[in-house]
Amino acid sequence: MRQAASRILMLVFIFCLVFSLHYKVRAQSASKPGVADHSWWQHAVFYEIYPRSFADSNNDGVGDLKGITSKLDYLKDLGVDAIWISPCFPSPQIDFGYDVSDYENIDPMYGTLADFDNLAAEARKRGIHIILDFVVNHTSDQHQWFLDSKSSRTSEHRDWYIWRDGKSTGRPPNNWISDFGGSAWQFDPTTNQYYYHYFYPQQPDLNWRNPAVKDAMFDVTRWWYKHGVSGFRLDAVDTLFEDPNLTDNPVLPGKNAFGDPKEANRYNTKLPELHETLRGLRKVADEYNAVLIGETWTADIAELNLYYGQGNNELQLPMDFLFTTVNKLSPADFRKQIAAVDSASGWPTFVISNHDIVRSYDRYGDGQHNDQIAKLMAGLYLTLRGTPIMYYGEEIGMKTTPPTRKEDVKDPIGRTGWPKEKGRDGERTPMQWDETSNAGFSTAKPWLPVPPTAQTHNVADELKDPDSVLSFYKKVLKLRHTNKALLDGSYTALNQNDQNVLSYLRVSKDQAVLVALNMSGAQQKVNFDLSARGFSSAKSLVATGKSEAKGNVVTLEPYGVFIGQLSK
Ligand code: NOJ
To answer: Cα torsion at 79, 348, 535, 471 (round to 10°)?
Structure first.
């Protein structure tokens, strides 16, 4: 009897062991497919799409989801593994979608939920992940939650936003300034209180201290995961919490572009409480093998580390915007920033352009060698250890084209801040698909004008030209997807005193790659004797123009790129 019982126990034990091992292996392969022990988002190349400006399928002058679906083959061919779509939810479009009035639907301007599901299905067929932009800090003032909140002091959603009495008649509760100009407090006569808005008054801040807000927002992420989304880019996470005592921010000397006194946002940004929220969002994300990308404006790597969380339990990909503050082609400055982020506690995330900042083509371009410099930048951020997030149009060398007259400005901050702050229209112009009128974006007049450079920089022409910026991006991206050193290898800076050439090694177990980037307008010859590290001379994998290696010497044309295979 006893023996039979112990046999049964043994069998149960073996069954449990086999089952748990099987489950563990499945769970691991779900989160770490393919190469080494990295997760899918560490090997993926991300691509930001500003949906208003990508492709217009119904020819109303504004891009849409069907337009994006029609370009999936282009994206696949380019080497994109995940698209981050800037907000496409119902919205009054005051901040072009960053003012959401319903988190669980699609704005009719972009299509329907069925269009989204179709986009997700078509993307999945091609192995492309979809990342949505989750506007976590605020809603639109037209969201049902806010409409109810403002209706009375006792309404169900009153405490979903931040309402306070003024200091005295006509005086807001404290000195906090909105990032988009003016006081961050808006008086509402219906209930005689002020509500808080870090951005426009039409973007009231949610009160994340209220558990009901947290539950509702977490449920939004679950809802989209069930629609096939692979993660979120979290908008403006720095601003989630505010000091409940509403302590005045320290005032700094000078005025900002809107004429407001400058302030240190000590009491309304980067409060420690936000990390608990991020840990919660991450827990939900982990249930779906999803990724969280953060819009994280950090002052240094110590701050960036906070966003990865202890033991990497917050954001997998907080963007390192400090990289975008290196605003000149300076090997020393890039070296410093790369070393800093390479030593961070999580996986690096590289961005060189997005819908809020001047395109990299203009930030680094000297007006004469912009195409070479665009290739140089691709050679840099697509070969570093980390995940790159591209911005639409960067791969064809799109130029920032800001409005020249105030009356043409669409972005409200450009109208309030003109002429010091011209707004962000310049980096949001329609994607340049071909040379036809409206650059193949739409047959109707686009919501923003197509830049004249569409004649020289467009997908159709650049696909035919083996020397184009686009062809170079494709080559580097192809290499990045297949070369283990570029996917997984360590980063080691070389020739750290070279003032013209930025160079480094990427070394994995089986492969090693040398990257040399000439950041100067003159030809450079660099001696790489890597024998002490156990490598012989490099064999070209991808290079621009006449850049080449002969023995230990790499010759780089002005702004040239050389990426070479090293063997032992
Ligand atoms: C950051 C977004 O990138 C920007 O475009 C937007 O205006 C603000 N957050 C407010 O949501």
So the answer is: 20
Amino acid identity, position 354: N
> Do strands 291-294 and 231-235 pair parallel, antiparallel, or not at all (unpaired)?
parallel
CB of 334 sitting under 6 A from ligand 1: no
In the block, residue with structure tokens 């809802």:
223
List the structure tokens of 279: 């840990």
- Strands 46-49 and 82-85 turn out to be parallel
DSSP codes joined into one string, 188-228 = ETTTTEEEE-SS-TTSPBB-TTSHHHHHHHHHHHHHHHHTT
Encode pLDDT of 519-540 as tens digits: 999 999 999 999 999 998 899 9
CB atoms under 10 Å from CB of 350, counted, come to 21
> 260 and 161 in contact (C-beta within 8 Å)?
no
Residue 70: DSSP 8-state = H
Report DSSP state, residue 166: -
Candidate from 85, 235, 357 with most ligand 1 atoms within 8 A of CB, to mutate: 235
Q: Which of 107-111, 161-165, 256-260, 520-524 has the lowest mean pLDDT?
A: 256-260
Model confidence at 33, in pLDDT bands (50, 70, 90)?
very low
Beta bridge partners of 293: 233, 317
**What span, in angstroms and rounded, lies between the C-alpha atoms of 417 and 542?**
44
Instruction: Please state the rounded mean pLDDT for residues 315-323.
Output: 96
Say which of 77, 156, 287, 356 is annotated catalytic.
287
> Is the confidence at residue 25, as pLDDT, over 70?
no
Asked if residues 35 and 484 have their Cβ atoms less than 8 Å apart, the reply is yes
0.70 exceeded by pTM: yes
* Tokens linked to 303: 């701050």
Angle at CA of residue 4, ends 3 and 7, nearest 5°: 85
Query: Choosing from 56, 107, 235, 557, which is the catalytic residue?
Result: 235
CB count in 10 Å sphere of residue 234: 25
Residue with tokens 């290739």: 375
Q: How many residues does the chain have?
A: 568
Q: Are 409 and 383 in contact (CB under 8 A)?
A: no
Could you tell me the two tokens for 188?
A: 């509402």
